[in-house]
Specification:
The complex is a heterodimer of chains A (about 280) and B (about 260).
Chain A: H1 19-45, H2 56-65, H3 67-101, H4 103-118, H5 121-131, H6 135-160, H7 164-172, H8 177-216, H9 224-233, H10 237-266
Helix pairs in contact in A: 2-10, 3-4, 3-6, 3-8, 3-9, 4-6, 5-6, 5-8, 6-8, 8-9, 8-10, 9-10
Chain B: E1 7-15, E2 21-30, E3 35-39, H1 46-54, E4 61-65, H2 70-74, E5 76-79, H3 91-101, H4 106-119, H5 135-147, E6 153-157, H6 165-182, E7 185-190, H7 193-199, E8 202-207, E9 212-218, H8 227-230, H9 233-254
Parallel strand pairs in B: 3-7, 3-8, 5-6, 6-7
Antiparallel strand pairs in B: 1-2, 1-4, 8-9
The chains are: A mainly alpha (about 280), B alpha/beta (about 260).
């Protein structure tokens, strides 16, 4: 039992990332590279023509070459997505608050929100595009319909699952309805609202793309879906794939951005946003 | 004692919507400045009784009278079984809540809340979120919040039941110290004989199904009570007496 056990100085993890974090980044990256490499290899070895299946290198080249029209389309789609999400978030929040204030309102309106949710957007998009003259507005409505429900239903659940003891406490101090809502129910519902928002972010993009597809056959839009359709008609398959890549990347970016917002807002108090190390 | 009690319960009964009779015929006077423990097995309606006194539940029979007027009924603090803190708010904001709900300005409320946190020995933890505090510290925040309005009646519903023994003993002592300094009235619900004897000046023993008062025992040991009281012969004797009363209450129910 003599001497001090030589303690190795803690090795500084490379780039400040732990082994676990490295694994989390490296493992999917390697899989991705392998799949892309295999794809490129198959295309080259079998000499598959690009109008059947372009290789990833060609897709990347097309993406760079056609960046100007593609990025312009991306901007159009992104604008509709963001606007639809904004409207869905504010209307969803507002309606959920209304539901929490009045059971009658909730019971009379909630079934219709469900109907709105379960009706396939592909089926009603043509109608909306016919009824609404302004094409941007009709796309916005389609994207909004898809994005609206998760925020509404999540926030409603959140507002209704406030801690009963805390509600008693507010009653004990004779808090007004407004104080209960503002200081208790809304903060309690925040994690639910944010998780609804994360789901809706991706859905708004899908709604916008679907609506563009439907409208695109009428030939009056210029979003990413329109580029995909157009490239399909012209058999410019690499371009079609490039637009598809942009759609996926945009969806991922929206999800990550909303996750970051959620993390920043909740990190100090909510379980879902705590690092593993901080868990008690 | 000649002064009117702080609160009087007269034939108070509570029947739940399900038809269960939770509390029956409770008569109880609580004097200002007293430390009263409500002791009984689970399901004896002691928490229900507490909630009725707090105004969180209405009795279905009898009445609860406040000789000091309606203002006295509002002049209360309540500590739940769980700390029941707002997880999104700092310790300071949690303690300041009752003051702000009553319309006090932010700055003054924060100042008073900080002073109250210091009195429960949480100076330096003002900016901490509940998540970062231990179970005992969270309960201290909860007590600080209940006392920040300087209420005349402090109600506690098995506040220390979920804590480990060492922490519970410390909080017992801190609660007694605060009570001796301010002499607010305490109505303390517990199912622990040892805790009730250590803290209270008067123990009201309840029996279950339906909840009713079985015995009303004074604990005449002098304050300040400290750790040596816990090991004294007088303490043991009181515990034995209260245990017997409790055993009797439960036997009546069983038979």
């Amino acid at each position: 039992m003599s001497g001090q056990a030589k303690e190795a100085p803690p090795r500084r993890p490379p780039f400040g990332l732990s082994g676990e974090a490295w694994l989390r980044i490296l493992a999917p990256t390697i899989i991705g590279l392998l799949v892309l490499g295999g794809w490129e290899w198959v295309v080259r070895v079998h000499d598959i023509p690009p109008y059947v299946l372009p290789g990833p290198v060609l897709i990347a080249e097309t993406l760079v070459r056609d960046w100007t029209p593609l990025s312009a389309s991306l901007l159009v789609t992104l604008k509709i997505t963001a606007l639809a999400l904004l409207v869905a978030a504010s209307l969803g929040l507002l309606l959920a608050v209304l539901f929490a204030q009045s059971r009658v309102v909730e019971l009379s309106l909630f079934p219709y929100a469900v109907i709105l949710q379960v009706t396939p957007i592909v089926a009603i998009a043509p109608l909306i595009i016919i009824w609404v003259n302004d094409i941007t507005l009709s796309l916005l409505i389609c994207a909004w319909i898809v994005a609206f429900f998760p925020i509404l239903s999540n926030t409603t659940v959140g507002l209704n699952s406030t801690d009963h003891n805390l509600l008693d406490l507010f009653r004990l101090y004779r808090a007004s309805r407004w104080q209960v809502l503002w200081r208790l129910r809304l903060p309690s519902a925040m994690p639910y609202f944010l998780s609804g928002l994360r789901i809706s972010g991706g859905l708004a993009l899908i709604g916008a793309i679907v609506a563009e597809f439907v409208a695109g056959t009428g030939g009056s839009a210029s979003g990413l879906a329109y580029r995909i359709l157009e490239a399909g008609y012209q058999l410019q398959i690499p371009r079609m794939f490039a637009a598809l890549v942009l759609v996926s990347v945009t969806g991922i970016a929206i999800f990550l951005a909303l996750s970051l917002v959620s993390h920043l807002l909740l990190r100090r108090w909510h379980e879902s946003a705590m690092g593993h190390g901080e868990r008690r | 004692m000649s002064a009117a009690p702080l609160v009087s319960l007269r034939a108070v009964a509570k029947r739940y919507a399900t038809g269960t009779l939770a509390v029956r015929g409770v008569d109880l006077d609580i004097d200002a400045g007293d430390f009263v423990a409500l002791l009984g097995p689970s399901g004896c309606g002691k928490s229900t009784l507490l909630r009725m006194v707090a105004g969180l539940a209405a009795p279905t029979g009898g009445s609860i009278l406040w000789p000091g007027g309606a203002a006295a009924a509002k002049d209360i603090g309540f500590v739940f079984q769980e700390p029941t803190l707002m997880p999104w708010a700092t310790a300071l904001a949690n303690v300041a809540l009752p003051l702000e709900l009553a319309g006090m300005g932010r700055a003054e409320a924060a100042e008073r809340a900080a002073a109250m946190l210091a009195r429960v020995e949480l100076k330096g933890f003002e900016a901490a979120y509940p998540r970062a505090l231990s179970g005992g510290m969270r309960m201290r925040v909860s007590i600080a919040r209940a006392l920040v309005t300087r209420p005349r009646l402090l109600m506690m519903d098995e506040p220390f039941a979920a804590l480990d023994e060492i922490t519970r003993f410390r909080l017992n002592n801190d609660l007694l110290r605060l009570w001796e300094a301010e002499r607010f009235t305490v109505l303390f619900v517990t199912h622990s004989v040892f805790e009730s004897v250590y803290l209270a000046r008067r123990i009201v023993v309840m029996a279950a199904r339906p909840g009713r008062i079985e015995a009303d025992l004074p604990i005449d040991a002098a304050y300040p009570r400290g750790e040596d009281f816990r090991t004294s012969a007088a303490y043991a004797a009181h515990c034995r007496g209260v245990s017997q009363a409790l055993g009797h209450a439960m036997a009546v129910h069983a038979g």
